[in-house]
Amino acid sequence: MATSTTSRTPAVATPARTKPAARRQIVDAKARWFNGFCVSVLVVFAVIWALPLVWAAVTSLRPEGEIAVNPAAWWSGSWTFDAYAKVLGTGDIQNWYLNSFVAAAVTAILAVVVCSMAGFALSQTKFRGRRWLFALIGAGLVIPPQVLIVPLFNEFNTLHLLNTYWALILQALPAPPIAVFVFAAFFRGIPAELAESAHVDGASWFRIYQGIYMPLTRPAVSAVFIFQFVWSWNNFLWPLLVMTNTRMMTLPVGLSQVSSAYGIHYAQIMASAVLGALPLLLVFVIFQRRIVEGVATTGFK
Amino acid sequence: MVVHTISGAAPGRRTEHRAGWGLVAPFLVIYLLFLVVPTLYGFVMSFFNGALVKSGLGSFAGVSNYLEALTSADFWSSTWHTLLFTIMTTPPLVIVALALAILTDRMRHGRWFFRLVFFAPYVVPVASVALIWTWLYTPKIGLWESWLGAVGISAPNWLGDPNWAMASVALTTVWWTLGFNFVLYLAGLQEIPRELYEASAVDGASPWSQLWNITIPMLRRTTVLVLLLQAIASLKVFDQIYLMTEGGPNFATRPIIGYIYDIGFTDFRTGYAAAISTLYFVLILTVSVIWLLVNRRQLREV
Question: How many residue pairs from chains A and B have C-beta atoms closer than 8 A?
Answer without folding.
Answer: 307
